[in-house]
Each structure stands twice: as structure tokens, then as C-alpha cells.
Amino acid sequence: MFKRIDVLLIIAFIVLNFQIHQKCSIVPDGISLTFAKDDLGSINENFIFSSLHISRKSIRLTINLGCINLLLLLLAGDIEVCPGPSNIATTFTNNKGIKIFHQNICGLFSSLPLLTALFQNQSNIDILTLSETHISCNSYNDSNDLYFIKGYSFEKLNRKFGSGGGVGMYLSDKIKWLRRFDLEKDEIECMWVEIQLKNAKNFLVGSIYRPPITSQYLPKKFNDTFSEVLDIVNKEDIECIILGDLNTNYLIGRDSKEIKDIIILNGFDQLITKPTRTTSDSSTLIDVVLSNKKVNISKTDVFPLSLSDHDMIGCVRKLNHIKYEPRTITCRNYTSYDSNNLCKDISSLDLTLFYEMKDTNKAWVFLKDHLTALFNKHAPIITKKVKGRHCPWLTTDVKKQMNNKDKLLRKARLTKSKGDFAMYKTAKNLCNNMVKIAKRNYHHALINENKHNPRKFWKSIKAVFSGDKISKLSIPYLEDNEFSPKNNESRANSFCSFFTNVAKSLKEQSFPLQNFVWKTPTAIHERTYRRFKFQYVSKIFVEKELKILKTHKSAGIDNLPPLLLRDSASVISKPISHIINLSLTSGKIPTEWKSAKVIPLHKSGKTTKTDNYRPISILPVLSKILERAVQRQLLDYLEECNLLSPYQFGYRKKRSTELATTLFIDNIRKEVDMASMVGAVFIDLSKAFDTLGHSTLLSKLKSYGIRNESLDWFENYFFERHQVVSFDNKISDKYPVFCGVPQGSILGPILFLIFFNDFKDTLLFSDVVQFADDTVIYVAGKNVDEIERKLNLDLINVSSFFMKNELVINLKKGKTEAMLFGTCKKLSKTSNFLKLFYDNTQITYTKTYKYLGYTIDQSLCLSQQFDILYKKSATKLKLLSKLKYYLPLDAIKCVYQATIQPTITYSCTVNLNITHTQKQKLASLDQRASKIVENLDINTIDLINKHAVKLVHKCITNNVCSNFVNYFEVMSHERVTRNNNHMLIVPKVKLEFAKRSFYFMGVKLYNSLPLEIRQAEKNFDALLKRFTFQ
After folding, report:
1. Residues 6 or more apart whose Cβ sits within 8 Å of residue 280
2. I need a surface site. Which of 316, 381, 758, 960 has the fewest CB within 10 A?
């Protein structure tokens, strides 16, 4: 039996079925049903939802065609009339921060009851932006009163010409906001609101709609106007969040590339990753959240609410109320420090007994005790509690002014005197100016110190401008231990135990039943009859090294700070050089110099797992000077005797990642141009530096002519090494280190090169390119079967080499992978797949691989790499636009030339024949940069071409590594002509595939230079600088 209400509902809908021309609608109160003959002719929807069916397939039926299905739903007995969408996850709305959502509503008037129900069900919505409101100017539905929802204010921007379109925004009454009409342009449908927060910086929220590319309402100058608006926003230096429907599919990389490039170029990131519009035959991501400060967005998501054929998107903007826990630090007090007085006291030391000592440990302890006493006298060690975030630019004078400002504010509030408030305002303005000057000075010093190290520079800048947290590392417990240490000393010991044993454990898993502490060295044939011998290290060398110490670096386990060592370089260089020479002649290194202080740095993942931390080793400063002296002498010896593999590009003069990548890619292009394909295996080693066996390394050193006293020194260098972990001002016990070369050491890289130098000897068919442990082996062949056979045979030898040398290969996806190179046409006719095996484990096959920071694809079109570099450069330009307020113009130019130009031109010799579209992108990047870096002529394409011809000139003059000597053929003949011996022979290539190569395009660019430049010998670079490529 039906209930009375069911019967009534059935009768009502049967009556409705006979209303052929009248349509059902809902008035703005969101509750009652009405009929309208005049104004509602365009509305043809019925809003009844089943609580059993709250996915996107909610029931939205026309009355005539859907009546039967609707009756069946009513008979199910579980029907809610207009319950409204309620599928926004509670876990999302419960996040702390401002909840901002966007919905393409496809007609606001007809969907208003659903929005009302949504706001009733979800009280945590702070801002809802809308697109396609379909509100026509000066029509019956143009009044804001029609769209009133309790607790919210409504703002809109209608399409000025034509129907449809329009954007709007609901803002909670809890939020203070200001409409920014000055940012709104007639050419695009985009409205702006500035959110005004208490005790925090304001930020902008924009609601935007871009019609489809096929629409007659898409403005011709949309992209130009959009770029102009974003540029205005950037000049305000304000955080901005833009939500809307751009009709640009972010699931397809090449869709509407120009609008995406504008977004990237202006420093915005698109944060939505899921499809936002799904139909029976397609899924697209066209509704977006754009932010120029994504670090402040804690969460984003997509919600299928059935408000329209678009899903709702949302983000949570953090309120930035970060509470920094007070932390206790140990540091030196430099308040009364005077470097001249320190040098005088050191000069007055009686070191007669010291110079008579023959034992390095006794000599070091004697000198260290005297230096420590004087350092503590002039800059005593203190312990203090630090509150708030780390502000490296905050000086003592600024702190005093801040305290004075706060004191005057308290006084003014107490007395309520106008005079006291005036004094407070004066002090406040003075304080603000001092902060700006302090920041400017700090960043200027930072640039000068790191201008030759862009990576370190940008790391520091990002920490300041990107809002990165710098707070105390808090770990409640560690999962990887048998017990859960509750105090920081136990945690430090747990970290030290893990870092010490991780390499040993890795080797035991890979090579069971072997002794990794010590084993009988394998006999290795001699590679030279020359003998290496240490040379005397002068006082001048030591003083020079001391004077270039980075003063912000931490002190090692000896607790001697770099600043004091640098300031006293002129007076301590002689005794330090004495200890260094004593060490080299006796074969003994001070024991303390072989101890490292390790800082656990969290990488990613759970903070409670020790393997999610990277050990950062801090060695004593003076031990690095000793290692620098040894490293230079050893490397010069190896290069002079040609003992290192010519295919090793790591840590050597005249070699770089660019040259390694260029040689590898050029060789592939040459083979493919001769109708071959190339198969490659990119090899990645696990903990390469940490797993080196000391006995094997000593045997290899001996084979390279390092014997007798020199070999004794290296043996002493490896043994009795220890490390401690420093965690929250607590030091762990000492743990012995049994294998590997010290991380962070100067000697480590060159010792690894020696250890890995004979890898090429194991290969029968393959060529190899190496940069330290980053190795790629590759072989050419006419078909896939031939390539597979040769590579698999070589991989057997590689496996044997790694086992013999106790090196562990990393076979995880994204680490060791295989790839097949060729033209698109040839790849399409093959299986396009390599079946390669390492110890019966199949190596992952990939179509793209990031090699030495360069993303390579199968057909070497390299467009993905260009897009990556383009985005990186645009992001850095955004940071530079903020930095310009703290630095003078010459410093801004220095930053751009030292950090941004090298980014966009990185390994540019790999792909010189760039496309027309890529040239346009570079031009837009140059235009953006010229607005930030004033009075600087910026032409990136010209810069790339000049970089290439400089390398060509080095190859011709043999001022390059052996791999590129005779790389180009100079035209030479008996006839006397102007270009004789000054023109390069253009190599014959068959395919467009090869015309992008350095060996082809380099010749074309070089030959296009004026004869005056090509003839130049000494002033080639100076003449080239004045030339511009057309």
C-alpha cells in the first residue's frame, strides 16, 4: 500500500506530464515550485535527487521524456525533494584555512536552489567563484537581490555583449573583502576581489571564464589582455589565486599552449590534477586553480556535485599563522669581537715546542687547544633561546629598533597621548626602513658569496621568499628501531647507527656470505710505471684556502668556526701548513680530522622513518684544506699520465654535464642518420660513494702508481674513521665507518673516479658516457634483436664487475632503465621495446629519461626538456621580480646573468635547431625579463647561438677535452682564398633528425660568423660579444 504522500506525488507528476508548453521552475527561496508562462521558457530541468545516487549521474530530467523513470524513483520510497548537492568531503572542509571553491554553474538563476542547499549543508565554504552565470545585463535576472543567500554577499560581472558567459562570486560575511574594479578589463570576463586578513598580508581572488576556441564570444585579444592583467598583479607584489573555466585542457599538454605559457611566464602554477568535466566519451581538465604562491595552498580537490556538467573544484589557502616553537641553540657571541686583536694574540703564541713535534696528533692537539682558548676569549660560546622563524638578515641594530618601537607602542596605548603615538609612528617608519636596508645588505652579500654557485643561491632565496618553514625538527619516535627513543640523545644514536650501517646492510642483501670489513685485495695489473709522490704544501696555498672559506658554514667536530679561521688566516697559515706537511711525510692524519659530524636532513615521507633522512656530513674545516692539497696533486698526476677514462666527465677540468650529454646525443644522431637504431641502458647505483670497499680501492690506487709513503697516507685516511650525529644540540656516540668515501669530502669524488675507472674495460660491444656514477651504455644496430643481444651480453659483464667491486645497482623504476632511439617512422615499425636483463631481472623500459638533468625522449625532439627549462626560468623570474626591491640594479643584472640565463641555456648545444614556437616562447621570456632587469639587452636565442660557437671555437683550438678534439674539420686547400683555414666543412646528413645536432648546427652557426671573427685568435670572445645573430 502506498502512503498518502506517495499517491499525491504520483498524481502531481501525472498532471505535469500533460503540461506540454509550460515548464517547471523553482523560485529563489529554494523550496516552493511555481509555474511561469512568460519568463521561464528557456528552463527545461527538474531538480529531484535520490539520496541513494549522489554521484554525477544524478537525475536531471525533462518533464515529458523523464516521467516514467521519475515515477519509478518515487516508488523506491527513498526520495528527497531538492536535497541539494552534499558531496564535498568533510575532511576537505575541516582543513584549517580559507576554503575557496569554483563551479561552472551553466546558468545561476536555474541552479540557485541547489546552491542554497549547498551552503546550508556546507557551512565552511568561505568563497565560491562561479563561471557561466548567464546573467544578461539589464534583464529580468540582473538584480543582485535575486541571488541572495543568507550569510553571503554576491558580486558579479556580466558579459557585456551577447548571451551566456559571465562570472560571479559568493563571499562569506565572516571575511573582509574589497572589490578590485581597477583590475577588471572589458576584453575578458574576469572579476577580482582583495581578501583583507587580520594580522596577515592581503591576497587577491579572481574568477575567470574563457569561452571555447570555437566561440564567437572569445575576444581576439584575450591572451594579450590576460597577460597584461597578470603583469599588473605581479607588479603589486601580492599573492593571487585565480579560479575559473579556461576551456584549456590540462590533460593534453599541447592544448592551448599559448595561454598555458602566459600562466607559467607570470609565475603561476595550475594546481588541479583530476578531470573536471566528464562525459560518456571524454574527460577534460578545464576548470583550474592558479596560484603565484602555491606554498600557501595546503590542499586542492575535485567534487562531482551535479550542479552542472562541470565538477566543482576547491582549494584551501593557509592562514599563515605559523607557530614556531622556541629552540635552544649554541653559538658564539661576536658582540665584542675584533679580528685585529685576535690576530695579535695568536701572533704572540710561543709555538717553538709545536714545530719540534713529529706526531701529527700531538701537534694538532697542542695547536687546537691554544686556538680554542683564544677563540673562546674573543668570541665566547653561549647558549640562547630563539623564538620565531629564522631571519638571517636580522641584525643587532634592527632588533634594538624593533624593541624600541614595541616599547613606544605600549607607552602610547597606556597614555593615549597624541605625542606618544607620533613618536611610535616615527620609530615604526625608522624600523621598517632599517629592515629593508638589512634585507638589501644580506641579499647583496649572499649574491657576492654564491654568484658562482647558482644552486646554493636560489636555495637561499627560495627559503626567504617562498615561505619555507625553518623550524625545529620534531620527531615523536623512530619506527626503524627495536625501541622508541624518547630523548634526543637516544634519537641521535639511532640515526648514527642507521647511517653507519646502511651501506653495509645494502651490500649484505645484494652479496650475501661476504666479508665487507676487510678482504684480501684482488690482484690488479699495473696501469703505469710512473710513481706518485706528495709535494710540499706552501704557507701561501694554505692562507689562500683559509681566506676563501664560506663563513656561514657550520664548524666541524673540532668546533673551530670558519669565520675565525678566515679572519686569522695570515697568522695561522704557517702552523697549519706545518701539520699538513707533517701528515703527508709521516702518512698519519690527525684522528679528529677523520671524524665527521652528521646532520639528518628529512627528504620526504614519514618523519618517523630513518631511511627518509639524508646524512649531511660536516668535516673539520682544516681537514678539507689538507684534502684540497692532496686532491689537486693527485688529479694533476692522473691527467698528466692520461690514466683516467676519456669517457668520464665528472669532477675533471674542461669537462661538464653539458659536454657529456652533447657527446651522447650527437653519437645517437650520427648512428640514426646512417639508418641504425640505438639502444641504451641508463645505470644508477645505490649509495655509490658509501659502498666502496677500502681494500679494493687501495689495490686500485697501487695499480695507478700510488705506492710506499703515499699509499700509507691513503690507508691511514680510510681507517679509523668515525662519525657522530648532531640532533637538536645533542651529539651521539662515535660510530666507526668501515666502507665508502666520506660524503662531503674533497677527496671523495676523485677516489670514486679511480675506483670506477676500469668499468669501460668490461664492455665488449657498448660505448659508454659517465659522469661520476651516472652511467649510460649504448649500442647501435640495424634491428632490435641485434641491439638486445649485444646489450644483454654486456650487462652480464656489468653484473660481474659490480659484484667483484661490491657495487649495488638500483633497478627501481626511474633509476636504471632502458630506451630505444630512432626516428619516429622507424620506431613505429618496430616493437618499440627492449627486453634487457640484469641478473635475471628485467630492466624497466621507458620512453623518456632524465639524464644529468636533461630529459631525453626516444625520437630526440626534446620538446619536454625545453618546456621544463622554460618553466624553471619563468619561476626564477618571478622570484627575481620580488628580489629587485631589495637589491640595486647592477646586482639584479648579476643575478639574472648568473642564474637565469644558465637555466634556459642549459645544455643548449644538444638541440640547436629549435622550432618557431619555441623561439616565440623565448622572445616572450625575454620581454618579461627586460621589464624586471632594466637597461639590459636580453636576447636568449642570440645567447644560445653564441654559446654554441664558443664551444666550436674551443674544439677547433683544442681548448677542450680529448673527446671533442678534431670534432670539426677545417676547410683547407692549396688555393689562396679568404675562407681558407677559416671555414668548417659542413657534414653530410640525410635526415632532419641529425640536423639538430651540435656537430651539424655548430658548423652552420660558426660559418655564418663574419670572417673577422673567424680569423681572430686571441680576441675571439670579445669580437663575438659585439656581434648579433640574425
Report:
1. none
2. 381
CA distance 146 to 144: 5
Q: What is the mean pLDDT of the chain?
A: 83
Cell numbers standing for residue 417: 597621548
Cross-strand bridge partners of residue 971: none
HSE (side-chain half, CA atoms, 13 Å) at 562: 19
Long-range Cβ contact pairs of 959-964 (< 8 A, separation 24 or more)? 959/654, 960/654, 960/659, 961/646, 961/649, 961/652, 961/654, 961/655, 961/659, 962/646, 963/646, 963/647, 963/659, 963/663, 964/659, 964/663
Q: What whole-number distance in Å separates Cα of residue 136 and Cα of residue 1022?
A: 64
List beta partners, residue 193: 179, 205
Q: Dihedrals φ, ψ of 105, to 5°?
A: -90, -20
The neighbour count for residue 418, using CB atoms within 10 Å, is: 9
How does DSSP assign 819-844, residue by residue? EEE--HHHHHTS------EETTEEPE
CA pair distance 980, 48, nearest whole angstrom: 86
Residue in the structure block whose three cell numbers are 656489468: 798
Residue 836 near residue 792, CB atoms below 8 Å: yes
pLDDT higher than threshold 50 for residue 52: no
Which amino acid, residue 778? Y
Question: Which cell numbers hold the place of 828?
Answer: 613505429
| pLDDT tens-digit map of 133-178 | 998 877 767 788 889 999 999 999 998 877 889 999 999 999 999 9
The pair phi, psi for residue 857, each rounded to 5°, is -120, 170
Cell 659542413 locates to: 986
In sign, the C-alpha dihedral spanning 658, 896, 870, 1023 is negative
Distance of CA 903 to the CA centre of its chain: 12
The tens digit of pLDDT for each residue in 962-978 reads 999 999 999 887 777 77
For the chain, the straight-line distance linking the first and the last C-alpha, in angstroms and rounded, comes to 88
Q: How far apart are CA 172 and CA 151, in angstroms?
A: 6
Q: Are strands 595-602 and 721-727 parallel, antiparallel or unpaired?
A: parallel
Task: Residue 166: count other Cβ atoms within 10 Å of its Cβ.
Answer: 25
Provide the sign of the torsion angle of the four alpha carbons 442, 448, 451, 453, taken in this order: negative
Please state the pTM of the whole predicted model. Answer: 0.76
The answer to whether the beta carbons of residues 421 and 409 sit under 8 Å apart is no
Helices (H) and strands (E) counted in the chain, each on its own, are 31, 35
Strand order in the sheet with 774-781: 767-771, 774-781, 677-683, 817-821, 844-845
d(CA 86, CA 625): 66
3-state secondary structure (DSSP) of residue 658: helix
Helices 569-586 and 708-718 pack at an angle, to 10 degrees, of 110
Backbone φ and ψ of 332, nearest 5° = -105, 150
Q: CA-CA distance, 38 to 210, in Å (whole number)?
A: 31
- Three-state DSSP state, 110: helix
CA distance 718 to 736: 11
Residues sharing a CB contact under 8 Å with residue 172, sequence separation 6 or more, in sequence order = 125, 126, 127, 151, 152
